[in-house]
UniProtKB/TrEMBL annotation:
This is 4-hydroxy-tetrahydrodipicolinate reductase. Keywords: Amino-acid biosynthesis, Cytoplasm, Diaminopimelate biosynthesis, Lysine biosynthesis, NAD, NADP, Oxidoreductase. Its main location: cytoplasm. Coiled coil: none annotated. Pathway: Amino-acid biosynthesis; L-lysine biosynthesis via DAP pathway; (S)-tetrahydrodipicolinate from L-aspartate: step 4/4.
Amino acid sequence: MKVVLVGYGKMGKEIEKILISRGHEVVGKATDAQPLNTEMIKEADVAIDFSTPDSVINNIEFLLKENIPSVIGTTGWNKSYEQVKLWVDDQNGALVHASNFSVGVNLFFKLNEQLAQLMAPYKEYSPGITEIHHTEKLDAPSGTAITLAEGIIENYSALSDWYCPESKTENDTESDKKSKNGNNLKINAVREPDVKGTHLIEYKSNIDTLSIQHEAHNRTGFALGAVIAAEWIINKKGIFTMKDVLQLS
Ligand SMILES: NC(=O)C1=CN([C@@H]2O[C@H](COP(=O)(O)OP(=O)(O)OC[C@H]3O[C@@H](n4cnc5c(N)ncnc54)[C@H](O)[C@@H]3O)[C@@H](O)[C@H]2O)C=CC1
Ligand SMILES: O=C(O)C1=N[C@H](C(=O)O)C[C@H](O)C1
């Protein structure tokens, strides 16, 4: 397949290696210096976007108008989800998005939901999420941590929402940062040099702590998952997630 890379940073470069190893061709690379344009997508079968929270919505709108199926890995745009869904429907387009494209994290999402169901009756335990990423990351909490929080909240009736004291990009008002009432799940967002992505779920009581963790050792899993999603989305119509690609629903 012929692919346009939208964003050619840490992830764009990793995806290029996987594309070439699977016999695909990169026909365009959009960056902040050279944004998407009609010339760049002329030959493309599909676009893979790992850009920035500020640029991704314009990129999605452009790709839908140009009828190019897209894989969206960029995080930090959850508040625009309903708008994007409408655009996909209106344009009869094709888009697959995921806060995390790695197979390991998608299995971890399932495990997280099952653990929340198991823990829900035991009120002596308090759940919490910690995510650790590299210091260049623009959004906090991570998209993966938000998906994990939603998975807990859906299966754990004592919780109604999440909050993150270090919140950036979307929930960045002072009231969001302080909204730590009893029904809210705390996400700690930690930034350390060169960390690829670690997510820790803990249920703490006075007696003990139960925990599950996913730690990415490199970016290969994210990139491979995104390429598998690109191979899958061609000739489909609608809005999908990695759950659909992996048939984990
Ligand atoms: N869903 C997943 O599995 C994963 C998602 N991500 C997400 O992917 C995104 C990118 O991550 P990195 O590659 O680490 O960031 P990065 O900072 O290394 O690269 C970002 C790229 O976006 C480009 N860019 C900026 N404005 C643009 C525009 N208007 N049009 C096109 N490109 C533009 C920059 O020039 C740069 O090449 C982040 O939102 C991150 O959270 C990262 C890893 C895995
Ligand atoms: O920015 C990153 O690096 C990552 N972002 C994604 C997220 O926000 O969850 C996925 C992964 O954790 C790496």
